[in-house]
Structures
1.
Amino acid sequence: MTATRPTIFDNALESADKRWPIESPSTTVFDFNYDAGRDQLLRLYDKGTRKQWIGGDRLDWSLEVDPENPVGMPDDIHPLFGTTWWDKMTPSERGEARRHLESWRFSQFMHGEQGALICTAKIVQTVPDIDSKFYAATQVIDEARHVEVYSRYLHEKIQMVYPLNANLRSLLDDVISDSRWDMTYLGMQVLIEGLALAAFGVIRNAATEPLGKALNAYVMQDEARHVMFGRLALRDYYPQLTQAERDEREEFCVDACYRMRDRFLGEEIWERLELPKEVADYVANSETQRVFRGYLFMRIVPVLKDIGLWGPRVTRAFEDMGVLGFADTDMDTEMANDEAAAQSLDEERLAHIEAVAGDA
């Protein structure tokens, strides 16, 4: 392994408090109807308990990672590929551009997973139904594991960490500080987790570096259950609300979706690389990045339709973003594909271990 380098996280926050307190008024709810669980949620809880895994065992941390191409993504999907800025870079500068992009991307995954850890612990307290408390408890350990493996990958392999992105920070602030249990579900289980699933999928499907590829595939296997959890709980709850209450939640979704779209512009990367300010404008408006950011909503759009937040505000916003076509995505099929991809990687690793043992 190469010598450890100072991380951007340390450099950027050396004089700042590295803890971020958020005031979160909420009501803790006990539910004594222990035998009143919904079958679908109880089955999901059972699956969640059986699918637990250990990051230090399931992932092969002995694999070497090239810091200048950490995940082995093809250059033609780098936001700057094909531009004059990219063409003028030396091979070493291109390596730094790849390293910064993946460091920034994995850092936001890590910070978002800590947000999910906090939100799910809050759900255990505040959700009124015992079956939801059961499943949320399994998700708490899932999210702790995700923070652990992303942190380890960043610190040991990429050796660079970015601070929390401003758009993600503002959304986490809203979700955590809201006292209503369903808003925690909506913001985290549906919106943030849904966007993360699609972003993880880009890496899982395109990466050639086996550790980063497997890490994202295994996290996706968990996250697909988490989004399903949000669907099941909110699909039952939102028909009970007034139209005014649903309208308020739709307005939140529209604002959150625009903020999440902007989260993937990565302005802080180009600033760190000391590139001209017009680079950020190019990335924001390029056709390649527009298509990429649209793809990130593939998991969110059908879920919002399924849970009944599908009024004019939401449909207009998705039409404006160019993602309305995802409304009919089969989420059950996507979840099955996530399971199959993780299982395939497990089988490949087991076959490799057996082959090595046979040669010994």
2.
Amino acid sequence: MRTPFIAGNWKMNKTAAEGVEFANEIKAELDAIEGVDIAFCPPYLAVPAVAAALQGTKIGVGAQNMYFEESGAYTGEVAPNMLTPFCRYVILGHSERRAMFGETDEGVNKKIKAALAHGLTPIVCVGESLEQNQAGETQAFVGGQVRAAFDGLTAGEMAQCVIAYEPIWAIGTGLTASVEQAGEIIGGTVRAAVADMFGTETADKVRIQYGGSVKADNVAEFMAHPDIDGALVGGAALKASFVDLVRNAVV
């Protein structure tokens, strides 16, 4: 059985002080929910303070990105070893990073390997645009992203990763893939690609989240699908109702 995993991606929201206040507001309720892994992914500057606020709880902390080198002349970047004192997870390859900041499959692959080498659990994002979806290219595109992202990993390394399938057209738009659509891609494309690369036993261990306008009132439907193991949550993770979302994910 794969443990459900709900991660909140705060994106570029909340200062360190606001993040701590929010964490303190809801951490006790979240910590009491059994049967689910939970993580907050704040902006870089809020990570240490939020991690300190969450000490003693089961709630993990993740970064929203990282570079694959440990040090050097990479102005503005953050190395994996800078995250490890505070973070258990790191989001890699988010569609916003790919679209706005030119991230490539090759770069994501390097980041995954660096994260694993430093004991971080990568949450690796894949997903297609509306145009690709409407053109019937979803399976080929998303499957290609999976194969490129995890190229060169061992089966043991792959089993440590989390994948988030986020159709780009459903992120922050209010549009949501149906449970059937999401489940078909997560099981028939994403998990199938992992199985083809690393074997069915490994694919069965990998947790695959859905992301894209997930809210408290629809998360249970997604979680009822046998191939959907959690959610990468955006806007709904910035409100106290995130507690209801997590609670509904395990009902």
3.
Amino acid sequence: MVETGSRRHDVAIVGGGPAGSALACFLRQRGHEVVLFDAARFPRDKVCGEAVSPQAWPLLETMGAAERVRRLRPHPLGGMRLTSPDGTRFHGHYPRDHRGFAARRLDLDAALLAQARALGTEVHEATRVRGLLRRAEVVEGVEAEGPDGAQRRWTARLVVGADGRDSVVATQLRLRRPHPRLRRFAVRGHWQGVESLGEHGEMHVGGGGYCGVAPLSATFANVAFVLPRHEMAPAGGNLEGFYRAALRGRWPRLWERLDPGRLVEPPRAIGPLAVEARAVAAPGALLVGDAAGFYDPFTGEGITLALRTAEIAAHAISEALAAHDATAAVSGRLEAYERARHAATCDKFRFNRLLQVAVGWPDAANLMARRLERRPDLADRLVAIAGDFVPARTALGPRFLWDLLRA
């Protein structure tokens, strides 16, 4: 027997990660009735680079979660350091008085979900959404399985998929598809006793891919690398052995710093990373965060992007729900959300892809690193673009490319 909830909510959110929790906070601040479902119990881990850009702080302040995040004592990040295949390094700094941070997703996501709950969101953990309720092709709710195995229907004026790259909502709406070309996998581990960590995130290019280091304390770090699918074949059956061998063989300078330390838990892998959504809105539903498309952001802006798109979505949803003709209004406002999200993200996605192409060629990566090493001002500008202080479209224009080439 399938039970039906006793009341209809304004919005049902599937997924309690940063995008889902942020959206719940923004909607509750506007007075909407929100119910949120997540298949996991929190705290729960998530494979991620765990570095967050400075521009996340204003969004965290707006949703009321900044103090909760500060209580986690996240490790401050003042910029990025990139090491090219030949060992050339350059540093880029965020603008003065702006700091990003690194924090375990185990802790960060739990803090954001706690803020959503504190604002009055009805949260159901260990509850897996199995399907969507529809009438005449309009989504009207979800069917979910609770921790006791019981099935229950929940009705809502709008359903939001915030459930990540493998989104159930996007799949049910037939909006999700693998990226036609990008087939990369990520493997992440946490290391204790790492040498020479500071207040910069690190990117090590070469070895057929790239490896990021996010310092979570003075000695503890997230070390994650990204490789094409065909490079992952040796991982079958022994992921930890593959992870160690890949670090030792592909990034030996980094391995020298890791080897005296300790891998504190077995590594985890995810992939293919990149997915696309044919659209981010449908009648009665929309997608936010990674559910709306994930492009393996080289510059590590996934969490900030999730918060920003949640804020954009909250504005569109609130306007739609305030209209008298809900069906027509929701349809129009969700189309507006799609346009607004594209405008806010398209240049950054293009910048990330351009940067990945550039560092994908060892000679080009070495040349770029040598030039940026000589021009700290350009390195700072590149990192400011990555951190969203400078519009990404400036990196796509002829002036920036000319300055980079003649550095």
